[in-house]
C-alpha cells in the first residue's frame, strides 16, 4: 500500500506542475469520445461523420469551457437527427432547451455528467457514474445523471428505428413524433435505470458522509448491491429484459472506481483515529479525528567512488641509491657532530654500530614513506597543488 501512496503523491506532483496541459488533454479525449459515439450511432450525415471533422471539432472544444463541449454535442445530435426526421429533431431540441434552461446554465461544471452517462452506457458500465458522483459530488448530481440517461435512450431509439423513420416521410411526421415520445419517455427500462441511479447516488452520498470507519468503501459496496437489487427487482416487476452479467460486472466496476476515488481523494489511516472532546460557553464538542495518510517518497542517495586509474605509472625505487644517499647524509651529519676534547683531539659522539643502525633505520623509514605516498596518491595531490 505504501507504494500506491507514493505513486499517488508523484501523480499529484505531476498534475500540479502540468495541470493546464493535463486538463486540456482530458477535455480533448472526452470530447473526441463523445463526438465519435454520436457519429457512430447516428451517422446519418456522412459529412459530419468524417473522422477529420470529429477530431477537428474535439480540438476546438478542448480550448473552450466544458459547457461548449456539451452544447456542441447537442447540436451534433440535432443535425444527425434532422437527416432522419425533422419532427424528431424538433422534439429533441425542445428537450435540450428544457435541460439547458432549468439546469445546465445554473450548474455548468456538472454538465459534464450529461456527457459521461451516454459514454458509460456505450461501455456497458452506467452504474459507475452514480457511485462515483455519490462519492465526490452532491445530491444535485442526480439531475445531470437523469438528463444523461434520457439523452442516451433518445439516441438509442433513433439508432434502432432509423429505417422505419426514414420510410415514413413527411406525411407520417406526427405519428413519428408520438411514437418517439411514447417509446422514449414511457420506456420501462429507462424508468428502472433512472430509479436505480437516483437511489444509488443518494445512498452512496449518505453513507460516505457518516462518521464510521471505511465509510467510502462501505458506500461503494452498498451502492453496487443496491443497484443490482433494484434493477433485478424492477426487471421482474415491469417485465424488462436485463443482461445480468452486464449488471454484475458493471457494479463490480463501480466498486473498483470507488476504491480508486478513495485512494485519490480520501486516503486516511483509521488505525490512528482519535476522539476529542472540548467545550466553550455554549456547546460541548465531540470530534472524531482521522489522520490522512502521507507517505514521503524515498530519497535516493548516490555515492560516487573514484576508481583507481588503470594507466597509473609505476615508479621503480633503486634501494642501493637510497642507501648510498642515506649514508652520505649520515656521514655529513656525523662530521658536524664531532666535539673537541681538552687535548685538542676530536672524539666521535656515536659508535660505528649506532651509525650503521641509524642509517638502516633512515632507509627503511624512507622506503615506507615512499610506499605509503604511492598507495594513498599523496604525491599526485602535491603535484596538483
From TrEMBL:
It comes from the Bacteria. Residues 320-340 have a biased composition (Basic and acidic residues). The chain crosses the membrane at residues 21-39, 51-79, 86-104, 110-129, 190-207, 219-238, 244-268. Keywords: Membrane, Transmembrane, Transmembrane helix. Residues 316-366 are annotated as: Disordered. This is ABC transporter permease. It comes from Claveliimonas monacensis.
Amino acid at each position: 500500500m505504501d507504494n500506491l501512496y507514493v505513486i499517488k503523491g508523484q501523480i499529484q506532483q505531476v498534475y500540479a506542475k502540468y495541470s493546464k496541459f493535463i486538463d486540456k488533454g482530458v477535455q480533448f479525449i472526452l470530447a473526441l469520445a463523445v463526438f465519435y459515439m454520436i457519429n457512430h450511432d447516428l451517422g446519418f450525415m456522412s459529412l459530419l461523420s468524417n473522422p477529420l471533422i470529429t477530431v477537428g471539432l474535439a480540438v476546438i472544444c478542448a480550448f473552450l469551457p466544458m459547457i461548449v463541449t456539451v452544447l456542441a454535442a447537442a447540436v451534433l445530435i440535432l443535425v444527425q437527427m434532422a437527416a432522419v426526421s425533422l419532427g424528431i429533431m424538433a422534439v429533441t431540441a425542445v428537450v435540450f432547451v428544457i435541460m439547458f434552461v432549468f439546469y445546465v446554465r445554473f450548474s455548468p461544471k456538472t454538465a459534464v455528467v450529461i456527457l459521461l452517462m451516454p459514454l458509460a452506457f456505450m461501455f456497458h458500465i452506467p452504474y459507475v457514474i452514480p457511485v462515483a458522483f455519490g462519492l465526490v459530488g452532491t445530491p444535485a448530481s442526480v439531475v445531470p445523471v437523469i438528463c444523461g440517461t434520457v439523452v442516451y435512450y433518445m439516441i438509442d431509439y433513433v439508432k434502432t428505428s432509423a429505417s422505419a423513420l426514414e420510410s415514413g416521410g413527411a406525411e407520417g411526421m406526427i405519428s413519428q413524433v408520438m411514437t418517439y415520445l411514447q417509446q422514449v419517455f414511457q420506456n420501462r427500462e429507462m424508468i428502472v435505470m433512472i430509479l436505480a441511479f437516483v437511489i444509488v447516488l443518494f445512498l452512496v452520498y449518505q453513507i460516505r458522509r457518516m462518521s464510521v470507519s471505511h465509510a467510502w468503501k462501505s458506500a461503494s459496496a452498498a451502492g453496487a448491491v443496491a443497484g443490482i437489487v433494484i434493477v433485478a427487482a424492477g426487471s421482474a416487476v415491469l417485465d424488462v429484459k436485463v443482461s445480468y452479467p452486464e449488471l454484475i460486472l458493471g457494479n463490480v466496476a463501480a466498486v473498483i472506481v470507488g476504491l480508486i476515488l478513495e485512494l485519490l481523494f480520501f486516503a486516511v489511516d483509521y488505525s490512528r483515529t482519535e476522539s476529542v472532546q472540548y467545550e466553550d460557553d455554549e456547546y460541548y464538542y465531540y470530534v472524531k479525528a482521522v489522520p490522512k495518510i502521507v507517505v514521503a517518497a524515498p530519497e535516493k542517495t548516490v555515492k560516487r567512488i573514484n576508481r583507481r586509474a588503470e594507466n597509473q605509472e609505476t615508479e621503480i625505487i633503486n634501494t642501493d641509491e637510497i642507501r648510498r644517499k642515506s649514508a652520505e647524509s649520515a656521514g655529513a651529519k656525523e662530521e658536524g657532530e664531532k666535539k673537541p676534547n681538552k687535548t685538542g683531539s676530536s672524539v666521535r659522539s656515536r659508535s660505528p654500530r649506532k651509525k650503521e643502525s641509524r642509517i638502516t633505520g633512515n632507509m627503511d623509514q624512507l622506503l615506507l614513506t615512499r610506499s605509503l605516498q604511492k598507495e594513498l596518491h599523496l604525491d599526485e595531490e602535491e603535484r596538483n597543488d
